[in-house]
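User: Hey, my collaborator sent me this sequence without any context and asked if I could get a structure. I don't really work with proteins. Can you help?
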Amino acid sequence: MTESSLQLLQRLIATPSVSREETAAADIVECHLRQAGIDVRRIHNNVWATNRHFSPGRPTLLLNSHIDTVRTAASWTRDPHSPDIADGRLYGLGSNDAGASVVSLIAIFCEYYDSHLPFNLLLAITAEEEVMGEKGMRAFLPHLKEQGIGIDMALVGEPTGMRPAIGERGLLVLDAVTRGVSGHAARDEGVNALYKAIADIDRLRNFKFPRQSAGLGPVKISVTQIECGTQHNVIPDICRWVVDVRTTDAYNNEQTARMLDEAVESQLTPRSTRVWASLIDAAHSLRMAAEKAAGESFVSPTTSDMALMHDIPSLKIGPGLSARSHTADEYIRIDELEEAPSVYRNILNNLSKILHA
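Assistant: No problem. I've predicted the 3D structure and written it out in structure-token form, which is a compact way to encode the shape of the chain:
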């Protein structure tokens, strides 16, 4: 890790950049890249650039991480925007998630900017990842398409202990409505919506999808909230409940929602279907390059902008640990910062050898 990268990370920590408020942080990244001689482009608070020898005839590798952070937890004991170094740690909001990945990927992109590679490099430091907002990756990918630029594979910088996370489950939240007929509880009148809901909940508890993902396992279905009834002596005529579904690559989210809706009498309505599961094939060049450089891969329990990269083979790898993300007194270890560029470098070199072979 160069002194320049460390200083960049400290500047980012010192600059508040909660989701949808990243303008100042994006300005810092853009200025840093321009000072390095990079031809930078920007849409909203997404800063991006391609390598100097970019060619439409070669596959394109996206190097991506995000500059937005969550809001500060009340239990912080330090100033979250004071980038202090103590006991081999750099403290500050966004240091681990995902500032360390941001500066490491920027350093590697700058290093390879003028190199002749068998693939293109596209650096994208994006916004609104923590909320999957409309002006982050959801705006950036269509913008690239308008520019006639495709992405063939993606390396996403997130805290994984520099181990390659080759997949992550998707998310589907379903709002369920069960309808009955109201009546007086003493006379056993009406149709109890709560009983009907319980029957449907039991159906979902025992529901088995015909196909199962080889890499991500079964779809996980959990009923997490329920609201029903107005008073003790009235049979409820409506029951509302919520289903949390962790999806896999066996079915896309639309298919998953439709199959579950057809399995119950209640009406299930998805809040959103955009957070897809992802799993990069074991034989993909990027996965092989990453596993050779960084060792054993794993499936991540958390989501990232990989969920929005539909049909783009992707994996995530970066310095730090996911367990530190969104916690008070967040930090990144200095030795983790020092290790990251060399691992990224080895991945790119391995990928070059694989594509040349």
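In plain terms: The helical segments are 3-13, 23-35, 95-112, 137-146, 193-205, 253-263, 285-294, 334-356. You can pass these tokens on to your collaborator as they are.
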